[in-house]
Amino acid sequence: MTADSRDKPDHQRPEHPAFWDKRFSEGTTPWDAGTVPAALAAHMAAQAPASVLIPGCGSAHEAAFLDRLGWAVTALDFSPAAIEAARRNLGDWRGCLLQEDFFAHRPVAPYALVYERAFLCALPRKLWGGYGGTMARLVAPGGCLAGFFFLGEEPKGPPFGIGREALLGMLVPHFELAADEPVADSLPAFADGERWMVWRRR
Ligand SMILES: C[S@@+](CC[C@H](N)C(=O)[O-])C[C@H]1O[C@@H](n2cnc3c(N)ncnc32)[C@H](O)[C@@H]1O
Predict the structure, then answer these.
(1) Distance from residue 153's CA to the centre of ligand 1 (Å)
(2) What are residue 199's phi and psi, to 5 degrees?
(3) For residue 148, which atom of ligand 1 is closest to its CA?
(4) What is the pLDDT of residues 159-199, one digit of tens each?
(5) How many CB atoms are closer than 10 A to CB 9?
(6) What are the residue ranges spanned by the domains of the chain?
(7) DSSP code of 77?
(8) Distance from the alpha carbon of residue 54 to the mean position of ligand 1, in angstroms
(9) Is there an atom of ligand 1 within 6 Å of 44 CB?
(10) pTM over 0.85
(11) How far apart are CA 67 and CA 184, in angstroms?
């Protein structure tokens, strides 16, 4: 923890659940698409259902979609207010909704798929060092980390954009890049910076 972040209250520190609780409870959620992004829907059409993790699931719109497709979904978020929003959205579903820190998540088996959207860019840079290794632990060999990555060099966030070289440095030790495409339906919060990427676990 830096002296800087120690001085701030929890609700101003995105590494703390209180930061996200405040935004969910105030309804300030400019990242929330309210629907299933087109690239995810297109990608899933060609996949056989298996296990999937959605870290930092927020309102969890995609969780309900993947559940309907027959996937065994685990949606996880460390913010109680996010979990409450997800619970309202999900209603009656077959998946697992966990209030837990991503870095502490220890499933009984790694997942066939981890779906990323607006999660890495929610993490302050000081936490990025743990992202690649944790994803490598959570994705089964041959499985995928797939989703939307917010590329950019803007130091202030969230969203915290990541430079392409930094993202490659984080993931290439564990994954091969299998798809890297522009995104047509980005929200204004992510305009021009979002890429749809599929990373296959070695
Ligand atoms: C920008 S929101 C994105 C929510 C959702 N993925 C979406 O696309 O709408 C980031 C979410 O990540 C959650 N989050 C941030 N750090 C986390 C961590 N270490 N473990 C679990 N959840 C975390 C926050 O509580 C918040 O709900």
Answers:
(1) 20
(2) -115, 120
(3) 8
(4) 999 999 999 999 999 999 999 999 999 999 999 899 999 99
(5) 10
(6) 38-201
(7) E
(8) 9
(9) no
(10) yes
(11) 24
